[in-house]
Amino acid sequence: MALLETKDLYKIYEVGENVVHALDGVSVTIDRGEFVAIMGPSGSGKSTFMNVIGCLDEPTRGQYLLDGIDVGGLTRDELAEIRNRKIGFVFQGFNLLPRTSALENVELPMLYNSLSSAERRKRALDALRMLGLEGREQHTPNQLSGGQQQRVAIARALANDAPLILADEPTGNLDTKTSIEIMELLVGLNLESAITIVLVTHESDIAEFSRRIIRFRDGRIVSDEAVVKS
Ligand code: ADP
Ligand code: ADP
Predict the structure, then answer these.
(1) pLDDT of 94 strictly over 60
(2) Lining residues, ligand 1, CB within 6 Å
């Protein structure tokens, strides 16, 4: 079943006399449980696409359905709620609240569901432990390594039962070994918990961890292929 579906999305920026089609008619369906990598040159519309499907930005026109809900018809509050309930963001730099502990960062989006504070705490601690962050619960992001920060963001998605993880260059700042660890974690979550993952990367080695690669160019999808595992 489609978890996300876009129909003819356009995002048009007018800056002075220039008109930029950041998205130029993007129609795509991503089913529950898929693991998709988005690739393409700089300026091809990848971030714009991620921001629209993450309900952080509105398209100029076109339709976006998330889990069957037409996002275009929602108010700001409804958007914030859907973002918190359905989407785990693993974005570089815009990941975690800086002055807030790992534990509280993981608990935050759960404020949008009806769990007791004890249950929220338990789920957060369990998720942090699953991601190998035991003993780091009280650390703030700047007291954690880049890889640990990404794992906190993934723990946050997991604790919150987010059906969708959006990751923008999740391994961009990480060394090779840590990058592979993060990717293996995502592969495990995708297989075991059926979490849908959409990630942007410009590295083929990273894209190979996914099962489908969508390539953008000039705001359009130019290829969409299954990854053949050797
Ligand atoms: P990518 O993530 O693939 O590098 P982006 O989605 O960031 O590409 O950008 C796509 C195009 O839209 C680029 O040409 C970029 O300059 C333009 N663009 C993005 N955001 C804005 C903005 N806020 N105002 C004007 N143009 C923008
Ligand atoms: P506004 O609707 O006021 O422009 P934003 O779109 O900047 O607000 O952000 C709304 C909410 O979405 C914020 O509470 C922020 O936590 C979250 N948010 C914004 N950008 C990102 C991002 N790149 N990754 C994760 N969460 C984000």
Answers:
(1) no
(2) 13, 15, 20, 22, 40, 42-48
